[in-house]
């Protein structure tokens, strides 16, 4: 299956599976894959943790600059950072030539699956994750074209592909 003309943009909580799903989806449909956090690391030659040490606002400015650059190219699968929804300008940029998919994964699954110490905003533990979820959930819901529940990698990918087919968002070639 090959899709044309628009990006598929994955949003959601840290650890919800955006990067894993994005890479697998990219393999399945033949799109280029772009992980925004990885792009930022290559662009700045600094880790996400190092950038956050300079302040979240500093990181978000770089993120916005990168979003504008990445969105110039399509079609591709774009995996965003979990906080992308904190700036509506970023979402508007992504929506210009993309469809926004909210990957919603149960918090208990996220907590059991990720190394929180490697996530700059989650170093304070599970309570911080719950607070971030409360802060961002309605933003994820309001900005997305489709919410996909991630309980299983392959079901999630199938759900995304089916959504795209059913809604005729793209010219699909098999």
Quick take:
The chain is α/β, with parallel strands linked by helices and 174 residues long. It has one domain (7-166): 3-Layer(aba) Sandwich (Rossmann fold), CATH 3.40.50.300. The chain has helices spanning 18-29, 36-44, 48-53, 56-70, 88-95, 107-113, 126-143, 153-166, and strands spanning 7-11, 32-35, 76-79, 98-104, 146-149.
Task: Tell me what the structure shows.
- The chain is α/β, with parallel strands linked by helices.
- It has one domain (7-166): P-loop containing nucleotide triphosphate hydrolases (Rossmann fold, 3-Layer(aba) Sandwich), CATH 3.40.50.300.
- Helices cover 51% and strands 14% of the residues.
- The chain is built from 8 helices and 5 strands, in the order βαβαααβαβααβα.
- It has helices at residues 18-29, 36-44, 48-53, 56-70, 88-95, 107-113, 126-143, 153-166, and strands at 7-11, 32-35, 76-79, 98-104, 146-149.
- Strands 2-3-1-4-5 form a 5-stranded parallel sheet, sandwiched between helices.
- The mean pLDDT is 87.
- Monomer.
- ATP binds at residues 15-20, 119.
As laid out across the biggest beta sheet, the strand order is 2-3-1-4-5
Main β sheet profile: 5 strands, parallel
The CATH architecture would be: 3-Layer(aba) Sandwich
Q: In what range is the share of β-strand residues?
A: 5-15%
- N to C succession of SSEs: EHEHHHEHEHHEH
Determine the mean pLDDT.
Answer: 87
Q: Report the CATH topology name.
A: Rossmann fold
Class, according to the CATH hierarchy?
Alpha Beta
Helix content: 40-55%
The number of distinct structural domains comes to: 1
Considering the protein shown, what is the CATH homologous superfamily? P-loop containing nucleotide triphosphate hydrolases
The stretches of 5 or more residues where confidence is low (pLDDT under 50) are: none
Radius of gyration: 15 Å
**Termini separation (Å)?**
4 Å
Number of strands: 5
């Amino acid at each position: 299956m090959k899709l044309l003309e628009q990006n598929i943009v994955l949003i959601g909580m840290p650890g919800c599976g955006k990067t894993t799903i994005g890479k697998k989806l990219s393999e399945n449909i033949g799109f280029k894959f772009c992980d925004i956090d990885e792009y930022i690391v290559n662009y700045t030659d600094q880790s996400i943790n190092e950038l956050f040490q300079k302040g979240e606002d500093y990181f978000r400015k770089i993120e916005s600059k990168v979003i504008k650059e990445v969105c110039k190219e399509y079609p591709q699968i774009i995996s965003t950072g979990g906080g992308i929804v904190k700036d509506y300008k970023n979402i508007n940029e992504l929506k210009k030539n993309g469809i926004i998919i909210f990957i919603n994964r149960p918090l208990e699954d996220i907590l059991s699956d990720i190394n929180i110490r490697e996530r700059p905003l989650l170093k304070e533990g599970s309570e911080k994750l719950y607070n971030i979820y409360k802060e961002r959930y309605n933003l994820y819901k309001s900005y997305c074209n489709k919410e996909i529940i991630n309980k299983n990698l392959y079901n999630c990918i199938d759900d995304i592909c089916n959504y795209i087919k059913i809604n005729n968002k793209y010219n699909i070639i098999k």
